[in-house]
Amino acid sequence: MSDYTYPNEFIIKTKQRIQSQLDGNGVDPKKLTLTVKRQGVGTLSAQTLFSFDCQVDTKTQQGRQNIGRHVPQGTMQAEIQKIIVGIQSRDDMEQVAKNLLKKSPHQGFGLDKQLFDIPTEKTILCEHQNCGRCDGQGQAKCHTCQGQGRCQCHLCHGRGLMPCLTCRGVGTVLNQTTNQQQVCTDCHGQREIYCTNCQGQRTTSCSACNTTGRISCKDCGGEGAQSIIATITPTIKTSAVINLPDLDADCKNMVAKVGAEILAKGDHIVIKNVPPPVIDETEERAYYEEEPQDQSKDRLYYEAKIEWAVAEVNGDASKRNVYFIGSKGAVASSDPFMKPIFEKPLSLMKRAASGDGFVAGLLKDACEYRVSREILEYVVGGNKKKSMMMLKTKYGLGTTTDIFQSFVINGFKALKKITQRPRYVGLSISLILSSLLSYQWFIGDLRINTVDQNMSIRYVLDIFPMIFCMMISFALIKGLGFFALKSVMKDIGLPNTKMPAMGKAGMYAIIGNVLIWFGSMAYLFFMP
């Protein structure tokens, strides 16, 4: 372990990353030192255990299908159980499972609670069953004619007679020569004639079954049988056991924190399959001790090498550690060395958020630090989640989540403090304007102009003053808040094109305008 040297390129890359975090935040990045204290190569052992099961997918198809292996009717379940028992008892299935797992990523290392199909061992069974609807005949009673082969005539509705077409059911027609009514020659005065569709038979041939009264069975497709198709797919269920007994304490903590499976997926560690441990059959045992069982049949064994290093960060008075792990130089974790650096800008941000002093001045002092300027630039858009993600991207090393949350929350509150007074000034002005407009509409002469409309339309038009006043309120609240925020952000040196949220002022604007409107309507109804 003492001969091992962790790659210097990873140390330099991390140092540059820390320098970028320190730049503009009150610490000279050139004074930063990153010195490797301890380094080495650790090893761990692991096992991937597996067990067999079978998934059975059953479906029904029309007709006598020739899919898979045919089994006699009524023996499907017995055949399925026979196949499952056969697969589980086969001696070569352990090797099949091991070969399949070794072809998976990282040779099956760390596969926990996963399910794999064994496609080479899939079996398809097919059983033909007599159709229950047609009792194996392939033909079913026609639903259109109810098996009679003939249907009621749709023209005469089964009467056999219909109104005479010549006299239109009157019985007489006008003689064009004598200009007098005479008996109809077609119906002979009976007013009805035989139906021209069924010729008086009252029924017509069924077109659905072609007068046979039987149609092809829909369940079996006319073949008198259905096919039950069962697909039996053997599966492997895995679980993983990872042991960290021989690792250095720092390395063990890093692997436990990050996770050996994640390190393996990222190709940070070197993995190889190893043969199972040899059972010493010559070892003497007491009479009550059982003979050791060979457990190598249902598991794979692994060994892995992990490169690691611990470096000391020295950028101010305090000294903190950064932990490296893996052959790619991944930074597993680090002590919160950015916390003392962020204390002053965070305290200024908290004072601004609570209104403890001149908010704009406190924010300007906080923005002497780059982190404060970046936070205000992120949070001005109003998306807290996105702001957190941006901060983690820039200051992910040596910083804890609670610091990010505190910066973001206090940043939002500070911006609300800046716009609070202008927003309420806009609310006051808008409510005064709303009162004047409502007075002119309900008590003045504006409503008189709608006197020629009916009452329903007039009441609908009475709603427009309230809607218009709300729009004015929202515009004044957001407008004055925007200009106040833009002015402060300009002093800080940050652009602002986002409209601030209205906050409680918007809710008060809705309540105030509704009360003014209701008061005006009440005056309109109850005053003479």
Kindly state the percentage of residues in helix. Answer: 25-40%
Largest sheet, described in full?
Answer: 9 strands, mixed
- Shape label: flat
The assigned structural class equals: alpha+beta
Strand content: 15-25%
Gist of the model:
The chain is an alpha+beta fold and about 525 residues long. About 40% of the residues lie in helices and about 25% in strands. The strands form five sheets. Strands 1, 2, 3, 4, 13, 14, 15, 16 and 17 form a nine-stranded mixed β-sheet that branches. Strands 5-12 form a two-stranded antiparallel sheet. Strands 6-11 form a two-stranded antiparallel sheet.
Overall description:
The chain is 38% helix and 23% strand. With 528 residues, the chain is of the alpha+beta class. The strands form five sheets. Strands 1, 2, 3, 4, 13, 14, 15, 16 and 17 form a nine-stranded mixed sheet that branches. The longest helix has 43 residues, at 401-443. The protein is flat. The chain starts with 7 loop residues before the first helix and ends with a helix.
